[in-house]
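Fold it.
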Amino acid sequence: MAGSPDRALGLGDVALQAYLAHNYPDDLEPGLSATSFYDPSNFTYPFGTHICVVEVDTETGDIELLRYAAVDDVGNVINPMIVDGQLHGGLAQGIGQALWEGAVYDDSGQLVTGSLMDYAVPKIHNLISFELDRTTTPCPHNPLGVKGVGEAGAIASPAAVVNAVVDALSPFGIDHIDMPLTPEKVWRAVNA
């Protein structure tokens, strides 16, 4: 009898019976599934502050990262290790964009950085240990109070790095350099 407290079946047993399909009607396929959609009333808005300290060798144009601190608000954090991993990956990606990564074309329009053999991506020796912290403002538009974190590092870091380099080069009258800030590009700007 339905609802009887002395009768119970575990979810694993229910799922097993759903897939074995013994005694199923002909018009019913085996399996167990459910679908649900959530349409929030508004978007989430994560925010943060990223600060980078660099040293620029004006003789070579080489840039050394000295310190990188980031404080992000991604709402309620369910798994701190995943959040930190997302930030680390995004920071590496954004710093790579700021300093090394660039699509280079020859005079005839042929892409010459078309493989990872000649496209500069960040390596572990190019990066430093990041200082990460969080503030928490729960998002009011979803039941978990969470916000996105996957792009936070990649969005903020190019601007933080470029601003740090331009600030370091301000005594030379430099107030802008297009990314990527390769050593050659920085050296040319200093010697212009």
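The longest strand covers residues 63-73.
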